[in-house]
Amino acid sequence: KRLAQLGLRIPRSPAPAANYVPWRKSGKQVFISGQIPKAEDNSLLTGKLGANYSMDEGKAAARLCAVNLISQMREACGGDLDKVKAVVKVEGFVNCTPDFVDHPQIVNGCSDLLVEVFGQEVGAHSRFAVGCSSLPLGVAVEVGAVVEVVE
């Protein structure tokens, strides 16, 4: 219902880019592999924070990562996002220069959308937000997650 209220469309899950599975369920937990800011048209949001990418662009990239996380959650729940009981942890990586220090603000682009979609009680999560010298395919952000689901 919240997706409709937000006017947000969640696309089909992107296929993995290498030899791994997009998510793995263990008991009530689903471990979601790192999602990159890949749009439905297969375009990528690429860039390096602190060099050629603005804060707003970085937050938008993190938000698109969240859209792809939600898509993977939907797959793991057999199409029913109401089965998501808690977003437990978000793992954020920011492609940035060594002097860039605003990683948490960038990853908020992901965290904010998860709380908007699932509400504070389900969507609020623990997380880390770290900088790194590069990410796959030159993307600006990559985000993984752990969620708890109803069995």
Describe the structure.
This protein has one domain (23-37, 45-149): 2-Layer Sandwich (60s Ribosomal Protein L30, Chain: A). The chain is an alpha+beta fold and 151 residues long. The two termini are 21 Å apart. The chain is globular. It has a five-stranded mixed beta sheet with strand order 1-2-5-3-4. Helix 2 (55-76) runs parallel beside helix 3. Helices cover 32% and strands 26% of the residues. A hairpin with a 2-residue loop joins strand 1 and strand 2. The protein has three helices and five strands, in the order H-E-E-H-E-H-E-E.
Features:
151 residues; 32% helix; single chain; 3 helices; 5-stranded mixed sheet; 5 strands
In short:
Helix content is about 30%, strand content about 25%.
**Oligomeric grouping of the chains:** single chain
Compute the gyration radius: what is it? 14 Å
**Into how many domains do the coordinates divide?**
1
Order of helices and strands: HEEHEHEE
Largest sheet: 5 strands, mixed
Provide the fold topology.
Layout: H1 2-6, E1 23-26, E2 29-35, H2 55-76, E3 84-95, H3 103-123, E4 126-132, E5 141-149
Parallel strand pairs: 3-4
Antiparallel strand pairs: 1-2, 2-5, 3-5
Helix pairs in contact: 2-3
